[in-house]
User: What shape does this take?
Amino acid sequence: MISNNMYNGINILGKSLDASLMRHNVISENIANEDTPGYKRKDVKFEGLLQEALLSNNKLSDIDTNALTPQVVVDKANLSYRLDGNNVNIDTEMTELTKNQIKFNVLVDQVSNNFSRIKTVLSR
Assistant: This one.
């Protein structure tokens, strides 16, 4: 029998993939607005929400995946050294894009492995 934990685990991986896709779009927007005066870089808030949910629940099945919604936030903490008030640093954005791509690939592999395990169990 497939446990509720497994389904919730897949749902959490799905939410993580959603956050990663959203982050990719936000980083792309930051890069596109590198030369826009006054533009403030954006980021996606998700990992903190996930960590909080994992720490406050005893079981994976107790986590409310509907509450794990990634949010786009404006990064006002990253001070701008530019006269035009834009705080996008292309090197930072490219690094974040690479990190996000690696994270996305790992998540896809995890989802694929979970479905392979389910397929193996169901075929027996």
User: Anything to note?
Assistant: The mean pLDDT is 90. The chain has three helices and two strands. The first helix runs from residue 4 to 32. The two ends are 12 Å apart (CA to CA).
